Amino acid sequence: MIELARLFEPYDKQGQARTARQVKREVKQFLERLEHEAAEQPDQAKVIANITKAVRHRWWGLFICYRVSNVSSSNNDLETFFKDMKHHQRRITGRKSVQEFILRYGPFAAFIDYAESFDDLLARLCQVKPKDFKQARQALQKVQMRLKKLHRFRHHPDEYYRDLETRWKKAISSSR
What we know:
The protein is mainly alpha-helical.
């Protein structure tokens, strides 16, 4: 497993970035060598079959980090990002839990960079096409509307039901 993990390193010993093609070739050779060893060592065959199956099952997504910049090769960077985001949000709000913030903004919370200056933010936002902005804003508004309804249902159920009944009556009367 350690040898396999080393094959996925994004940089070689000289510090050069590795390509997806290079890593694929090395991993494929490694798996072929493992399968050959499984034939020679029947007691290890089950373990080798599990490793091979796991790698081949995930093959489609294993090499993306070599093709697309800023995609990390492990979960560690992603976990660190979420930890930092939660830490900063806790400092801003003073609350222990940031679940409400994450539920409210969902994937849009990932666009917040606390280390980014205002000028950098403006420069980044100038790169966004108006059409893409409108689509993202509509998606965020859908998420927020759903959460608003959920909040109303939990905290003010009587008002929620009255509003629902009123809307049903309007829908029925307009359909006649």
